[in-house]
Design goal:
One of its GO terms (cellular component) is outer membrane-bounded periplasmic space. With 462 residues, this protein is α/β, with parallel strands linked by helices. Helices cover 35% and strands 18% of the residues. Bound molecules: zinc ion.
Length: 462
């Protein structure tokens, strides 16, 4: 919208940014040293007459921007009066090429001087000063509590950098820092101004949505950065769909309130197709180098797998569709087990384990569900757990330790009703003797399959 006048003014102000070589208007493509990452922004600003390249076909992206250069560029971007004239600053003379823009920007409240009333036109502009400049110039008012570890809390600097970040213009260095005292380079200046002028360049627009997931917990804190050290900027609720731009460690950068924010990936999950056909995922706990509990000559991973195979076979006999996260002595991470089931659109997940205790007297069967999500899924998970528990206790003749609640990973942040069975205690002689016998393994597998079938019968009646 400022385009027309710039070409004229650019001629009069062609000496701005002059170092040893005169800058000229050329296309970014013809400049030898514009980084690809910023080529579109630089091209845009050259096209708008706001920055120029040098006659030796360079842009000098790493060069620092002085305060007089910054005022000139922002003055052009705002279409301010750049006619040279006397200024309010004793150290900015009328003859300085930037005097008109400095004075205009000062009168507009876009720039300010130092406490001693000087402007220090030849000083480098810092990244912190640049935040004030752009926030004032483009009247950015929205805040979202985004902070950086190297910006002091409860300062006006924190506020302007928050505003600049909320607007999708600044994103810091990607490690939670902003470097407010660092002199800003031409490339970074160009990116910030381009983003401020044209939302097509801003952080959110540039990012591609790589996934859509669903919040899997009742209330999920949304933070300004990828750790719990960052401020909470809001909350999401179970079932909310989030658009994900990228992952950083165990955190996901999501679209949030017109900007971006971060959530922990433990509490988001794949979306599930509710119309997919019935499919049960059976998960034999542990495997390979991860043996799980062991005692009385038994290793948990083997007991789990033997019972899981029986469960699978009975489910097939009952005409139910079944997949196994592992069907031999291999190891999968907890997330891989959940992902495997979700990717194949399973609609029920049952993880099979055996228990251990410091006391040899601890004995019996218990089945877990997760209530972290206070939802239909939690309700179904509890039902599933109860049906399995009842069948197992009856078949094994073991002590009934009941249905319990716990946020185990494989039954917690998952979109499907999920239960985790503890068949009995390897540390208890009575339980261990049953779990070591093929007779009871068969009974246990059948009981779990019957419990799952009970669950589907119940579900269909709903
Ligand atoms: Zn286990």
């Amino acid at each position: 919208m400022f385009k027309g006048k710039w070409r004229v003014l650019a001629v009069a102000l062609v000496s701005f940014l002059a170092l040893t070589v005169l800058p000229v208007s050329v296309s970014a493509a013809s400049l030898s040293d514009v980084p690809d990452a910023y080529a579109d922004e630089v091209e845009y600003l050259i096209d708008q007459g706001i920055v120029t390249g040098y006659t030796d076909n360079t842009f000098k992206p790493k060069n620092k921007v002085t305060r007089k250069e910054a005022a000139t560029m922002i003055g052009k971007a705002l279409d301010l009066n750049g006619t040279k004239r006397s200024t309010s600053f004793p150290d900015v003379s009328k003859s300085l090429y930037a005097s008109g823009y400095i004075q205009s920007a000062y009168e507009k409240g876009v720039i300010s001087g130092y406490p001693d009333n000087t402007y220090k036109p030849d000083n480098n502009m810092t990244r912190g000063e640049m935040a004030y400049l752009i926030v004032n110039a483009f009247s950015l008012n929205a805040e979202s509590g985004i902070n950086y570890s190297d910006v002091p809390n409860n300062t006006s600097l924190e506020t302007v950098i928050d505003k600049l970040s909320t607007a999708g213009i600044a994103e810091g260095y990607g490690d939670g820092t902003y470097h407010p005292k660092e002199a800003i380079s031409r490339e970074h200046f160009a990116v910030l101004v381009a983003r401020a002028m044209n939302p097509d360049f801003n952080v959110d627009s540039q990012s591609e949505v790589i996934a859509e997931k669903v919040v899997s917990t009742g209330v999920l804190n949304v933070r300004s950065g990828p750790s719990t050290d960052y401020n909470k900027v809001g909350k999401l609720y179970e079932g909310n769909v989030v658009k994900i731009y990228k992952y950083q460690g165990s955190w996901a950068k999501i679209a949030y309130n017109g900007s971006t924010a971060w959530v922990h990936t433990d509490y988001i999950m794949e979306k599930r197709d509710e119309n997919a056909p019935q499919l049960i995922a059976i998960d034999a706990g542990h495997g390979d180098h991860d043996g799980g509990a062991s005692d009385n000559g038994l290793v948990e991973k083997d007991v789990n797998l033997a019972v899981a195979r029986e469960t699978r076979d009975y489910l097939k006999q009952f005409g139910l569709n079944v997949i196994m996260t592992r069907s031999d002595d291999t190891f999968l991470e907890l997330n891989e087990r959940v992902d495997y089931a979700v990717d194949r659109n399973a609609d029920t997940f049952v993880s099979i384990h055996a228990n251990a205790s410091g006391s040899e007297y601890a004995e019996g069967v218990e089945t877990y569900y997760s209530s972290a999500a206070l939802s239909d899924r939690a309700y179904k998970s509890k039902k599933l757990a109860q049906f399995i528990q009842d069948r197992l206790v009856a078949a094994m003749g073991s002590k009934d330790r009941g249905v319990k609640e716990a946020p185990f990973r494989v039954i917690h942040a998952t979109p499907l009703p999920s239960s985790l069975v503890e068949l009995g205690f390897l540390t208890n002689d009575s339980d261990a003797s049953k779990l070591g016998s093929s007779y009871y393994r068969d009974k246990a597998g059948k009981a779990i399959a019957l419990g799952i079938r009970d669950y589907y019968t119940w579900k269909q009646s709903q």
